[in-house]
Amino acid sequence: MGRLEGRTVDPAALEMLKHAEEQGLETAWDRCRAQEPLCGFGNLGVCCRICLQGPCRIDPFGEGATRGICGAQDYSIVARNLIRSIAGGTAAHSDHGRHVALTLLAHLDGHAPDYRIADPAKAEAVARRIGLDPAGKTPQEITREVTLAALRDFSRLEEEPCTWVTSTVTPGMTEKFEECAIMPSNINGAIAEVMHRSTMGVDADPVNLIFGGLKSALADYAGCHLSTDLTDILFGTPRPVRSYANLGVIDPEKVNITVHGHIPLLSEIVVDVAREMEDEARAAGAAGINVVGICCTANEVLMRKGIPLATNFIAQELAIMTGAVDAIIVDLQCIMPALKTLCECFHTRLITTIPFSKIPGAYHVDFREEKAKESARRIVKLAIEAYRERDPAKVHVPQVKNEVVAGFSLEAMLEIFASVNREKPIRALVDAIEEGEIRGIALFAGCTNTKARHDDGHLTIARELARNDVFIVATGCAAGAMAKAGYMTSGAVKEFAGPGLTRFLERLGKASGFEGGLPLAFHMGSCVDNSRPVDLAVLIAKEMGSDVADIPFVATAPEAMHEKAVSIGAWAVTLGFPTHVGVIPPVYGSSLVTEVVTKIAEDVFGGYFILETDPLKAAQKLIEALNYRNWRRKYSRASLDEAMVAE
């Protein structure tokens, strides 16, 4: 394997990496190599820089310092660093949700006229789920009540549990969270508590620290769930849509606008405005306007508007290197500051849009919800101006793209399942599990990371699980990896699925009349949408008469990178999922903390971390976890049947 081939399995990304090398352009992979060797203390999580006495470094091999200046031992330092990552992820997801909630409220108050309530049925469904009575109320009144309830989950002062936790998990989970004292009463408070308890001179007990981190993780789950709910109300609950993915979606004949980040409040409007401004683009000599996406903003507009997905996180620079991207619009999260340096090598306009997320030297269009379309028009005009400066000699677009079928919200999936069982749609999936047709369900989530071969972990594990009849759902950059590789098509079913999974998907596709057949992997949304797979798991658990910790459902983040991945992984384990992470988090500096997250967590919550960098080994461990849960469920059922016969 060549040096560049060792970086990625994506043929479009590989072509662009070779092009970058020829042109002398720097990428994240180059900067990663420049960092080597990485700090061993940081990798193990035993470097503490929380107070100004240090930084302190603990030698896990006993040849150097065994305690920090304050006396903190390795397990305290590792646990503090870990839960601060969880708090960072919680802050990111919750701020996303708060932004959406405040935009909805502004619209309802008449201050954001460019938006509308796209899915009043979802508003009513959420209202009923959280205990509100929508009878006799207008969609606006229902949406207001739901939005205010969401905002209360951020800042209530009463010692009441978060609504978006208790209303979405099983009673058994709620009881467990209360018993372990990790049920959050509000999102902001959970984040603040982690930051306080992990400062110098407060909590030094590693188990107590980790449980505090899990409280923040559940707050993250609440923030994710309410964000998904409110975004569906505002822009519509996704339904299946066909599009394309990979760098070949960039069109050299058109003005190419790339939306990048995570919050769809501006990108949705940009898509609409771009369609209105086609004539201006043609007047500039272009064939029209082509909007494409990167990262989770891409997933948002793909699901709802069919906008093509260009690439995922680690390859974001490669889109600019095509020389055909006229503007890249960024909002929040996973945006490399290096984009600005690269844009200077081309004609591309880098446009930041959020007041607290700026990049030196970039254009800034201050996005305001009350003037959303006006902001979008300014951005599209900048892109058209940039197109006039494009140098055709620098254009190099890989002719690589694959069809993708996306937009599988839980509601959309249940509609498909209903074609098999109208009375109880979820029985279509449960029956397939109980009859052994499929082994279980796997959620693919998380990022891409230079520490791993780009996209390889996602695709390798997906192939192995599909071959072993595992039903696959995906979110975030994991979904992007599969979309780019063509795994979200019916053709991938024929190529990779085992006999049981093939029969299941073909039966569903035929019964529902799904045009072209169902895909191998179901695209369920952006990283903030990981609550959708949880809702699926909760439905399965209730139908099976058990809890999530007992059903054959696993999660995997083969190339985790962001603090958001840490917080998602933490609540996935807390909710009861065996959760694989393919990039080792900084916990190995303490055997005690490692033991807690990989073994003790299972005793308490049923979920646990599987830390494995080899994708093939990881796939086998996930299959073993599914097998064990299926065996345990059948054994428990057999014991119950024997007891009933004896009576």
Description:
There is one protein chain. The protein is an alpha/beta fold and 647 residues long. It folds into four domains: 11-57, no CATH class; 74-235, Up-down Bundle (Substrate Binding Domain Of Dnak, Chain:A, Domain 2); 247-394, 3-Layer(aba) Sandwich (Rossmann fold), CATH 3.40.50; 405-646, Rossmann fold (3-Layer(aba) Sandwich). Helices cover 52% and strands 11% of the residues. It contains 26 helices and 16 strands. The strands form four sheets. The protein has a six-stranded parallel beta sheet. β14 (553-557), α24 (563-575) and β15 (578-581) form a beta-alpha-beta unit. α4 runs parallel beside α10 (206-235), α9 (187-197) packs antiparallel against α10 and α19 packs parallel to α26. It is globular.
Write a brief structural summary.
This protein is of the alpha/beta class.
Structural class: alpha/beta
How many separate domains make up the residues? 4
**Overall spatial form:** globular
DSSP helix fraction: 40-55%
**What is the annotated CATH architecture of the largest domain?**
3-Layer(aba) Sandwich
Give the biggest sheet: 6 strands, parallel
Helical stretch count?
26
| Assigned CATH class of the largest domain | Alpha Beta
What is Rg? Answer: 24 Å
The count of strands amounts to 16
Which regions have little confidence, pLDDT < 50, spanning 5+ residues? Answer: none
